[in-house]
Amino acid sequence: MCGITGIITTAQTRIDQAGVRRMTESILHRGPDDNGYFWGNQVAFGHCRLSIIDAAGGRQPMLSADEGVVLTYNGEIYNFQFLRRELEGLGHSFKTECDTEVLLVAYLEWGADCVHRLRGMFAFAIWDNRKGELFLARDRLGIKPLYYASLPDGTFLFASELKALLQYPGLNRRLRLDALEDYLALGYVPDPKSILVGVEKLPPAHCLRLSKNTGKFELYRYWQLDMVTPPVVHEESEELLERLEEAVKLRMIADVPLGAFLSGGIDSSVVVGLMSRNNDKPVETCSVGSDVPEFDESGYAQMVADHFGAHHRMRLISAHDASLIDVMADVYDEPFADMSALPTYRVCALARETVKVALSGDGGDELFGGYRRYRFHMLEEQFRSAIPQMIRSAIFGPLSRVYPKMDWAPQFMRAKSTLEGLARNSAQAYFQSVAKTPDRDRSRLQSDRMKKQLNGYHPQERFEELADQIKGAHPLSVVQYIDINTYLPGDILTKVDRASMAHSLEVRVPLLDHKFFEWGMRLGPESRIVDGEGKAAFKRAARGFIPNEIIDRPKKGFNIPAGQWMREELAPMLEGLCESEVLLDTGLISRSGLRAMVGEHLASKRDHHASLWCILMLDRTLAKLDASPA
């Protein structure tokens, strides 16, 4: 795993070598083992390396034999040995044993089409001096990040993290208002936007070509999940584990100590079990436990470790970990409000004490329908499909407006969100179900200036756009597709990438192997949720392989007791937000709206913990970014 940076300039100006070094040094945590640079004619690449395979031979940036092509690359190509044999059969020879050289030679042989042959996680840049062209690519599901910016003076920048681009003095630091609104709604900034005007993220499964002569670039998609074709119908349990085992085995190739995260959930338990089946020694596993019993899953993790004979380490951490709040702003660059980032950061630190590579169980919920919100959505969808939206809007819209918001009440009495969902179309309703800050509360937080400048923009537009891309698909497939293109890369994978890279730890995700993922999506939606139970197909496959107690227990999730924490230890911090200069001087946040929400939360009149955590992390991140209002 690595960090990459680069500058291309179309103007007849010299590359600022000191600037490229500053960009690269700002992300040395991604690759502290080695660093290198390529200096070309109006082109420069930087690279910091976390050495995993062929430590001696895999130095980057890597040049072709004729020095006409240069590569800087972050990731792992798991099928590199197969590709190497194929390329050797085509007459190519190799000097190293690393996947980097295989990727470089694959480009020499197949050009931009090489991405179709890659099985792995990656974000890479290739400078092809023969064509005067820069080529960028990102893996299919967005496991590895890549930011870029095209500046008015003809300079093009790219880097693994936003903090590297911020080292370049000509970068615009104005806040992007629609991205800020997305963040307030979702708790993250979804691809391809960033929080800054003019800085973009290369979307998953996309490539970018830039001509040095013209300064113009082309962005295109090279892979798309098929969510519309009728699914394959067959008994999948045995084949599921076989296919996942292949993905796990590919991710166990490393020249350094390797282990796994073990939460005690189904996904990580199956991954650890498959690793154990293919390892002569006990698998190194780790987890963190909470000092609040209802959030602690460490006993289940230990049960799985004992079942498979893993060497397990657990560390108890405080659920109230205020010391990490400012650290998170440094780690994520953009505002990021997933509270599970705190324990994720801690478990990555624990893993790095003994291993350099860890496998995780991320992706199972998106693939096999494991989120509870999917089940609720499908229940609502049955109702929506039975009554035309015009009628639903006329009946349930007014009801939702008069029904009180009762966060304190038992679940069956909290009908306001359900009524709102029934009044909307499917994509709109799903957006509201995942929003950390609902429309009514975002409106309270927005200043008049922000409302005016947003000019009617609503973050649910992206959800509706994605739903339109797969019209005719099963309703469950539609919301999974939305998550795969928003929540998975924007939240889950961002959280793990930054937390792990902050500790120079590589995390591999076998459930997101694109071949396994494609196959899993070809299983019928009816195999994902059965009798109100999510992840049904995966549970059937896992039964008899992992302990039944793991399969049958309620899902907790990797989180912290946020609401009460924010009424106790963090209460002064919340009150301080109402006077924060860095936050309020933007002119985008309403002081009166924020003060009212803080007061309601501290008085236990409403539960605003998710919304207020968004504001808290925004405040801390703005202080680091030194960004100006749009």
TrEMBL record:
Catalysis: reaction(s): L-aspartate + L-glutamine + ATP + H2O = L-asparagine + L-glutamate + AMP + diphosphate + H(+)
Pathway assigned in UniProt: Amino-acid biosynthesis; L-asparagine biosynthesis; L-asparagine from L-aspartate (L-Gln route): step 1/1
Keywords noted in UniProt: ATP-binding, Glutamine amidotransferase, Nucleotide-binding
A matching Pfam family: GATase_7
Similarity annotation: Belongs to the asparagine synthetase family.
NCBIfam families referenced in this protein's UniProt entry, alphabetically: asn_synth_AEB, eps_aminotran_1
Protein known as: asparagine synthase (glutamine-hydrolyzing)
Species this protein is from: Kordiimonas lipolytica
